[in-house]
Amino acid sequence: MKEKDLLKLSAKELTDMGICPTCLNRKYNGAIFGDDSQQKIYEDEDIECLFVSNPRAVGHMMISSQIHYHDMSEAPDALNEKITRFAKQFMIILKKVFGCERVYLCTMSDGPMNHYHVQLIPRYSFEERGSKNFVKPRKTYVYNEKTFNQVKELINKYVLNIK
């Protein structure tokens, strides 16, 4: 199958074929997952941070490695440390901007081919506590310019402070 024909397949089909949909999406500028400009909060040579297009809660984010690794066990320690530092900062920011009670961190790089990423899933005070929050029904991402800009501004301040 030609690489361009792969763009017609779903992420699940690509994963099942041993092809990383994230890497293919990046190579073809969003051909699989679409334009993420209203979701991407931060990007550098190591990571990209964005609101999830099918969130389990308002404010659901992910941090992904730029280079392909299947999971944390394959990634260099320096990258894992950076992702952890950013995850901590985003947890603080999400609580402040969205008013959630907790932010759960999880990673599920599952299947024959997946791309290393961590998810930050907010839990609000009106929601039940517990592991069911990891499998809440997915919704559609709704861009909110005010909260998007608040989060982006706060993470940019954080990045400036660590340089």
Explained architecture:
The longest helix is centred in the middle third of the chain and has 22 residues, at 77-98. By secondary structure, the protein is α+β, with helices and mostly antiparallel strands. Strands 1-2-3-5-4 form a 5-stranded antiparallel sheet, covered by helices on one side. A hairpin with a 3-residue loop joins strand 1 and strand 2. The termini are far apart. The mean pLDDT is 89. It has helices spanning 3-6, 11-16, 21-27, 77-98, 145-162; strands spanning 40-43, 47-51, 61-65, 102-106, 117-123.
In DSSP terms (H or I, runs of 4 or more residues), the helix count works out at: 5
Distance between the termini: 45 Å
- The overall pLDDT average reads 89
Q: Major sheet, described briefly?
A: 5 strands, antiparallel
User: How helix-rich are the residues, as a percent range?
Assistant: 25-40%
Q: What is the CA-atom radius of gyration, in angstroms?
A: 16 Å
Work out the strand percent: 15-25%
User: Shape, please?
Assistant: globular
The unreliable regions are none
Q: What structural class do you assign from the helix and strand content?
A: alpha+beta
- The number of strands is 5
- The succession of helices and strands, N to C, reads HHHEEEHEEH
Oligomeric state of this protein: single chain
Cross-sheet strand order for the largest sheet: 1-2-3-5-4
